[in-house]
Amino acid sequence: MRIAVTGSTGLIGSALVRSLRADGHEVVRLVRRPPAAADEAAWDPRRDHVDPAGLAGCAAVVHLAGAGVADHRWSAAYKKEIRGSRVRGTATVARALAALDEPPAVLVSGSAIGFYGDTGDRAVDEDAPRGDGFLPSVCEEWEAAADPARAAGIRTVHARTGLVVARGGGAWARLFPLFRAGLGGRLGDGRQYWSYLSLRDEVAALRHLVDTPALSGPVNLTAPEPLTNRQVTAAMARVLHRPALLPVPAVALRIALGEFAGDVLGSQRVRPARLLGSGFVFRDPGIEQAIRAALDGPRTP
Description:
The chain contains twelve helices and 14 strands. An eight-stranded mixed beta sheet has the order 4-3-2-1-5-6-8-12, with helices on both faces. By secondary structure, the chain is an alpha/beta fold. It has a single domain (about 1-295), classed as 3-Layer(aba) Sandwich (Rossmann fold).
């Protein structure tokens, strides 16, 4: 199968490309610079352009590109970049696919469980409404930007990803060094729910979305049972054989992270109802399994 991937240099995208190629698939990496290899094709969301030759013959497209939510403090300019990179990029890909004479069968477009906002102790699945705040509004626009592909008859799936447990990026890339140094601890009161999954389950789930015709619309990519930050902290301490005695006060997080601290301290108790209902089987359903998988280092799922 020929599959195009955006965001192929990121944590998830690079792991997905390795996995697809290990199984013999042809991968075209859409890049926002002049192509430098035979497997690359150009796209430029700022100019609403995708090289049609890169999409020709593709059975599927996986769109993962977007500015990192936790990469910078949320200034007004960076919030604009977060929103624009997702909405503009998705619209560019969707319109390019809709214009093809022979479009792919499926577009798997990245999204996030940030759609639900702070759910507190309330468990939610894909039927829950959009939450309030910056990230929920971004996710809503991000997903709506794929409408041209859907209107063209392309099966469109929104992969609402949770916190990915990995050493190479995301929240856990910051947590692992702290815990190894014995400086880890709960964030705030630790009662907020974290909806997580291992990197290899994230990659396997994305491939499942590509391969399962019955799935369309939003699909949560999280482990079966969310845990509180306190439970996650305790698991990290057990696996790494380190104490977890130093809680990070909420006020310190707000000083360090600015507005993003509200999302770190917020609670998202998200369950993957549609993923489980479609027969997906997790390799790392528990938090200790996910942590150990991350510690094993990069591997092809």
